């Protein structure tokens, strides 16, 4: 499993977790060591989708205890999240490499390299598009949008 976070002007390093990301692993391997310091250092509000580990009581209570504000997010709108578009860009970059990873051992190196090669301007543009995305979602009454 690969996890990373973005915000305007910044991004986290990419982090790898072996196996399925359950609630405890999300809290102990992602939230506590990565998210909490990043959000506090940059004075951010967290936005994540409604995946089970994200909305589980153990994680919501943890975030509350750490004074991490969380942006409410519509239940069925993963296409509205800027990180989903960043993952798409990362996937395209890896597939376009001259030396495409040929096995699972080569993949983490390629992911790390391409993650750092995504221009921050690309991420910033995706974040800037959020107002348009939200308006489109409202106009579509929460249904599918072109985004």
UniProtKB/TrEMBL annotation:
Pfam families: DDE_3
Domain called Tc1-like transposase DDE: residue spans: 4-97
Cross-referenced InterPro entries: RNaseH_sf, Tc1-like_DDE_dom
Name of the protein in question: Transposable element Tc3 transposase
Species name: Labeo rohita (Indian major carp)
């Amino acid at each position: 499993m690969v996890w990373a976070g973005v915000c305007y002007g910044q991004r986290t390093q990419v982090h790898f977790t072996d196996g399925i990301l359950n609630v405890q692993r999300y809290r102990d391997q992602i939230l506590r060591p990565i998210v909490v310091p990043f959000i506090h250092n940059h004075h951010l509000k967290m936005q994540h989708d409604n995946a089970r580990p994200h909305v589980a009581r153990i994680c919501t209570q943890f975030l509350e205890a750490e004074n991490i504000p969380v942006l409410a997010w519509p239940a069925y709108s993963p296409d509205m999240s800027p990180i989903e578009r960043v993952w798409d860009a990362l996937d395209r970059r890896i597939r376009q490499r001259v030396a495409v990873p040929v096995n699972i051992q080569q993949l983490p190196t390629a992911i790390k390299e391409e993650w750092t090669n995504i221009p921050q301007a690309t991420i910033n543009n995706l974040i800037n598009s959020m107002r348009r995305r939200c308006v489109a979602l409202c106009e579509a009454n929460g249904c599918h949008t072109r985004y």
